[in-house]
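Bench log. Compound arrived from synthesis this morning; before running ITC I wanted a structural hypothesis for how glutamine sits in the protein. Inputs:
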Amino acid sequence: MKMAKKLIAILLAAALVVVCFAGCSNAKPQEEKKTLVMATNAEFPPYEYFEGDKIVGIDAEVAQAICDKLGYDLKIEHIEFDSIIPGIKGGKFDFGAAGMTVTPEREKEVSFTDSYATGIQSIIVKEGSDIKTADDLSKGGVKIGVQKGTTGDLYCTWDIEDKNLGTVERFAKGADAVMALTSGKVDAVVIDNEPAKVFVKNNEGLQILETSYAVEDYAIAVSKENTELLNEINGALKELIADGTIKNIIEKYIPAE
Ligand code: GLN
């Protein structure tokens, strides 16, 4: 019968579709890309900050360029700055890129790649402040705001607070330290120069002192156990520095003055 033939044809076609779907969904992609998880603290413009719910900035783009070169997918996670190194040590993250300064203390905890940028610890004060140089920070009784766990925090703690020459107030974000300066809760903020410029631009009545606190190197942090990834990233960085990619990324966010 015609109807029966048609029905069989339809059923056969349907069966074929089912088989194909089952087959297709079981098929594995030829090459599965490995994902590298990067830890950062996206409160540090222009190195890392939120644009909507996306983390953008110099470090996000440098990391993407490295991952593209090495054939990895990249996932960026936003956490507190002083949780980045413990997270790398504990294996939660593959690397940290957070405008992170290379220091001898941190080098005991993690491995650092070659440096890809320079940072300066700047001092922000209110316009007309009687704090005019870095030395004025330790003249006695000055309250200094910093972002917790940063080199600004470490230097001011060692040089000033531990010697009873002043006090250090620690904030989760640099922007909070700057807000405390605007409202008069602290007298100065010690923070990296590029975020300092952004914060001073966004808040009236503040200025960055001509004298800075320290000049430093930024690098990517990797677990001491993962020398393979350290070498891979260094290899990619070398090429990206040589072909001008890193310079272009930095200049996109920090136009030459
Ligand atoms: N460069 C500073 C440090 O490494 C601050 C980095 C940051 O706040 N993201 O401590």
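What the model suggests: The radius of gyration is 25 Å. Confidence is low (pLDDT under 50) at residues 23-28.
ITC booked for Thursday regardless.
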